């Protein structure tokens, strides 16, 4: 009888211990994220995007944080691409006949950006080999190259909108793409912090 009454008490103590451990780990994780975000070009955007990431447990290493940032970038790029697709599709306000080409070009650039970011996230999340080895450096170089290519695609989209697209459409698309470019820039900065042991 004594052992059956001890079981609920033991379970309650374990739950309390787990909750305290999680609470103690959260400030350390958020301090790590805050300090890491300071190294990016858009620290406030970095903090906001990592808060919206919702990964459990929160990232605790440079590699985990970079992968989370890439995941956010993929999601934002997909969302922006879908938005541009709606503008350019039937019934969309793609800027009329003159603006349809630049908006379609932007859509293609964003599709490429999504692919590059997805590839970068998969590469960073895979087995990169022993930290510091030639294989690790090769995988990390791939991730950096894909992030840079995604940024180039996003900027190419923005540049193309300056010709033949009405002001309202250009402004609407620009807002979405600038947001994606900022999180992608931050992701690249965090990827650049990944090194041996991370």
Automatic annotation (TrEMBL):
Keywords on record? Disulfide bond, Secreted, Signal
Q: Is Phosphoprotein tagged as a keyword?
A: no
A single GO cellular-component term from the record reads: extracellular region
SMART domains xref list: PMEI
Q: Name one Pfam family in it.
A: PMEI
> Signal sequence span per UniProt?
1-22
- Tell me the GO molecular function terms: enzyme inhibitor activity
* Record domain Pectinesterase inhibitor: where: 28-190
Compartment(s) of residence? Secreted, Extracellular space
Q: Which family does it belong to?
A: Belongs to the PMEI family.
Name under which the protein is recorded: Pectinesterase inhibitor domain-containing protein
Q: Which organism is it from?
A: Oryza meyeriana var. granulata
